[in-house]
Every structure is written in structure tokens, then in C-alpha cells.
Amino acid sequence: MKLDKYDIPDDLLYTKEHEWARVGANSTVVGITDYAADQLHDIVFVELPPQGSEQKQGSRVCSVESVKSSADVTSPLSGRVIRVNETLSTHPEKVNQSPYGDGWFFEISPSNLESEKGNLLDAKGYAEYLKGLLG
Asked: What is the pTM of this model?
């Protein structure tokens, strides 16, 4: 799905803080949306969460810095961080180049997936939310 110039993949879940979650059988990969990456402009630093750390849905898990600003990244689901994208430490621009691909941030093993999934938006819901922001 596309809204204006922004990609919104149908197979992901989204937060209103512009994170995405690709839910798999045993884990969920997390990143920021095309819209968020565009709003930040040129990303120059990504603070990744500690591997093995426990996260709560909606809590700050890491941050992103660009030439213009910085932003917190919140966890779309509760659980334990099982992997981080170390590539972003040396190549933070991957977030701008491929927010849904090589620019992912971390992978989490969800502890409460079924009950927390309902707090996230599907692609259509996120598109509607974004439409309201874009005017």
C-alpha cells in the first residue's frame, strides 16, 4: 500500500509512534516506518537496545539521531530483545535507504503477543492515521 510517497507494507503491524512490527512464528522484527525515516531526514546514529533486555509495549527501547533531530523508538510489543541490527552502528543510513529491509532495528521474542497485537494498527489503520497527520 502507498500513501502519498510513503510505503506501508500490508504484512506489518504499526504503532502511532511510527514503528513497525513484522510478526513471525517465534519472534518479531521491529523498525521505524518510511514516514518516520523521511521526517528524520539523514539518520547519522542509531542507539540499539541491549541484547537480552526485557522491553514493555510502548516503552522507550532505543533512539535515532539525524542531522536535524533525534527521536525515541518505542517497543511495539513486550518481550526480550534477541537480536539487534549491528550494521546500523556503522551504517545508520540504511534506515533511510531501506526502512522495511536492511534498516530494521531489533528482533524481540514477544511475551504477550496475542493480547498486545490488538493495540497495534494494520496497514489500512496506519494509512488512515497517517492521512490525518498529512492533512
From this structure: 0.96
